[in-house]
Amino acid sequence: MKHVSVFIFIALVMLLLGFANAAEPTASGELSSSDFSESDRCTECHGITYSQWDDTMHANAYIDPFYLKEFDAASNDTDGLVDSFCSRCHTPIGVVSGEIPPADGSHLSEIAKEGVNCDFCHTVSASNGTGNAPFIVTPGDVKWGPFKDSESAFHESEYLELETRAEFCGMCHEVSHPVNGLLIDDTYPAWKNSTYAEEDVTCQDCHMTPGITEFEANPGRSASGAPRRDHISLHRIVGGNAFMTEILNADNEKEMAIERLEQAATLNMDSPEIANRSENVTVQVSITNSGAGHNIPTGVSEIRQIWLEVKVTDGEGREIYNAGATDTRGEIVSAHTVYNNVLGDAQGDATLSFWLADRVLSDNRIGPKETVTEEHTFLLPEDAEYPLTVDATLKYRSAPQELIDHLFGEGVHEVPVIDMKEVSAVIYDPATPPEERVPPESTPGFGVLATVVVLLIVYLFKNR
């Protein structure tokens, strides 16, 4: 009996070791790029899905000009340490096939330049957790997907629950420094620690459906001849990148990125209704991350920038106060807060090069469903004309203009500043009676006039 127990123990250990080995991520050079299929081959059956993916940042993950500039700098600064590390998410086929390094991409096959292509994602058969791309990829005739009853005449189909979970996205959207472990991209961990995760609202629910901030069904077929289903995941998978999508002429993706940014947050303003000249006036503006299941901004958020521009003009249009405007060089002037995280290097100095960072100096990003409030105070001039208009605009850009000028050359690319949300208030002369405190532009619109006309016609008809 004792020998049987020992045998069982050894068998269990070997079994566990076997599982551990099976769960090892696919290593660099373990496969060949010829093991994978080009994405345009999928168009024969998945034409609609391919057209959704084709201009996305996933499709452009490797040829993204900004990524290539940053990657080149990172490779030079680290003597090639990050070559495979960064490329594992931006050209996964290039890494598992051993075509990177070298970092210059001179050995990359055309399929590896497809970034996160169709066959790569649908030959992921498992993962070894999340973070730093621990994917296990098994190229071949079997394609893994979110349905348990898929059938295809072209390839075998297998159900993979991982594809329906946020953990699938968390393989690449959680990044830790390969040497010191500093968390660089916390998109997945921020979601994991939010109420969205508690309520099982996944990345796919927002980024792979027609809905912007919540799940919305997309009825259809996953392929020609496939059964009609209540929901087919969209493969646009758009985030907030309205900068590179513009450069890459991906106009639809740019517009969707702007729409997503516009739905990410809400603003509220607490402003006095009246104020006296020559007095200080204080307004409060609250920003709520109401539509993102992660921090805003997210991703490589040390370069992302969100800020409020608060502007006050008097009744003649003269500007009395402005905090958060951008100057001719693209620098943000007098903003109370720029919402992002600031990384520090080994000397404790702030750096935008995350590969040189080993600490977080500050982090004031806005978490899921979190609200932050800014207080703005200005002096109301003696000669100001009433009423005053207070405008607050939440703004976003993908990177500082100075960084883009440094990487590409001054004047080559202008980083678009996106207005995420706006809110306004009016401040009146204390002598103005309450019934007269209406904004000067709030004259009856077409809808009101049309209603008046209809009521007048009805009155005249009844009294003929």
From TrEMBL:
Superkingdom field: Archaea
Keyword Membrane: yes
Alphabetically ordered keywords of this record: Membrane, Signal, Transmembrane, Transmembrane helix
Pfam family for this entry, one: Cytochrome_C554
Gene3D superfamilies membership: Flavocytochrome C3, Chain A
InterPro entries in UniProt: Cyt_c-552/4 (IPR023155), Multihaem_cyt_sf (IPR036280), Multiheme_Cytochr_ET (IPR051829)
Coiled coil (UniProt feature): none
Transmembrane segments: 443-461
Residue ranges annotated for the Cytochrome c-552/4 domain, each copy included: 42-123
Protein name: Cytochrome c family protein
